[in-house]
Amino acid sequence: MSTTNESGVNLVPIPTAEDLCFQILEALGVPGRDAGIVTNSLITADARGVSSHGISRLPVYAQRLQAGLINPTPDIKVIRDSPSAVLLDGANGFGHVVGARAMSTCLAKAGATGAAVAGVRQSTHFGTAGFFAQMATEEDMIGIVGSNGAPRMAAWGGRTSLLGTNPLAIAAPTGGSDPLLLDMATSAVALGKVILAAKRGEPIPTGWAMDIEGRPTTEAQAALDGLMLPLGGPKGSGLALMLDVLGGVLTGACFGMGIGSMYRDWDRSEGLGHVFIAIDIGRFLPIEEFKQRIDDLCAQVMGSDLAQGFDSIYLPGELEFLKERDHRTRGIQVDPGVWAEITALAGELGVS
Amino acid sequence: MSTTNESGVNLVPIPTAEDLCFQILEALGVPGRDAGIVTNSLITADARGVSSHGISRLPVYAQRLQAGLINPTPDIKVIRDSPSAVLLDGANGFGHVVGARAMSTCLAKAGATGAAVAGVRQSTHFGTAGFFAQMATEEDMIGIVGSNGAPRMAAWGGRTSLLGTNPLAIAAPTGGSDPLLLDMATSAVALGKVILAAKRGEPIPTGWAMDIEGRPTTEAQAALDGLMLPLGGPKGSGLALMLDVLGGVLTGACFGMGIGSMYRDWDRSEGLGHVFIAIDIGRFLPIEEFKQRIDDLCAQVMGSDLAQGFDSIYLPGELEFLKERDHRTRGIQVDPGVWAEITALAGELGVS
Question: Which residues of A touch B215 (CB under 8 A)?
Fold first, then answer.
């Protein structure tokens, strides 16, 4: 079912991982179409090397489904509808499913009017924001996606946890096969890097995190018990806050300290909110002209002279697309502990 | 006309500064209504302590007007029009004027459909992005503004100058008198801080800039001759690039290395592009409910315990609004060299 490489990481063929993920979700009561969306989001993240948003999340999703905190068959409802603005209630469905529905609705509206915004309340963890931004590029649109998240950062200057590492994704189509796809957390670094350092007992650089008392720390475990630091200090903090205004305050979702944690809160739903913006390129320029222009900009980037200490330059998302091509051939890398959890879960559910 | 404070900085009463700025612009052929918009943008920036975007720019604007590179009476045209998307040609008018027109158009469309996007090509330096984002809040909307700019940064990993310190502003109304107003360059720090350090002969911290050979530098002059570094490395670089896609590629404006410098290019216009997004809050929630919710989020921020080394926490824009109140009473701070340039310019133009 999987092979182990030289660093002790399992290499799982993508069809195997997809099949297992899909069957586990179906066994937990998720209808086939929705199980397909979640599977696609998770396995794509793993294929792109973003394993923090891949099938490593399946065990906690399963627990929350079993606890009734993720609804496998949500009645996702449009609760406010305008020509270029729409508000959806996610009914505690999988964020991946709710988000895909919201972005589809947003794209249809943008196709009709030129641009649109969709807001979502009562959602759950939605995987990578880039998954939805990329949907826009497949229809020759630009997609912008934001979300709030469970508190993991303080506002700049504080040490009270009240901001998620709220992600922002922006995607645009190019003349080539891959879009430009920026997908970034508003923390200085991804939480996953701190988790990895803690597992390995290694220190972390200053600037990544602070301890629970609001002091800079280089100890990974103190960082995990404390707070992540925002990207670029006040700028990342401000951006995270404004993403909460757009994703949380505007949509009627929970926001700030009011958001539930997927890992810690077992008596309540997460109450997450997201925002989706779609811009129909053809309302500005003929799409072929746009693609020539964006390819020209990309060529300028790729033709740059290198700075000291670098041996390559990547476009937003490019490194992830390169990994995806490699992993689609060789299989995705899955941590042995994660793989053991998932196969145990499959066993419990009677999935082969 | 002005007094000098203990640090040798001129304190100019705001009505004096406004009057002088307005009269200089009118003497250069800018019609009263447009001169008022530019004056408002510049003096508001000075009042908020953002003197890099205040009347210190007036001399270069005057030179570009006199060189025919800023058009004092532009025929700003809508060249593509959809219910929620509009593209304007700024005809080399003042970016402040073109931007205000674009945001007004965008707000009207968002009022009709729920959300809208305006793109602008053939524009010039537009001052602070926040000036336009704040316009949205006065109509109970959320405003998002982006622009490209003359190259001052490399893509992450490179040392070829091809990205501006492309700004992003996001503003939302609150229940109080001031909106939340995030207005940030995508460079690690503002160029103005490097200019100041160079003037004072002081070193700059690593992480701010690199020299022309792509090596990290702590010498302010080498930084000015070299490149600014992006906010948070690849994240700021990616964000700057996507802002160029939205402001430049999408709008038919110049982009990347193709953008003209306001200071160096005297044989061509800047060819800047901007993007404006407006979201009508009332299409999502009753505005009073939105304001209660955003005030609750702000109260969470302001009620935070302090991190080590901090004695206060500010909301996005708050520090600037505090300065504005102070400066509206005491006058704005103007560098003596800048003040001498402006009064000399006034003299040449026969403005008293």
Answer: 307-308
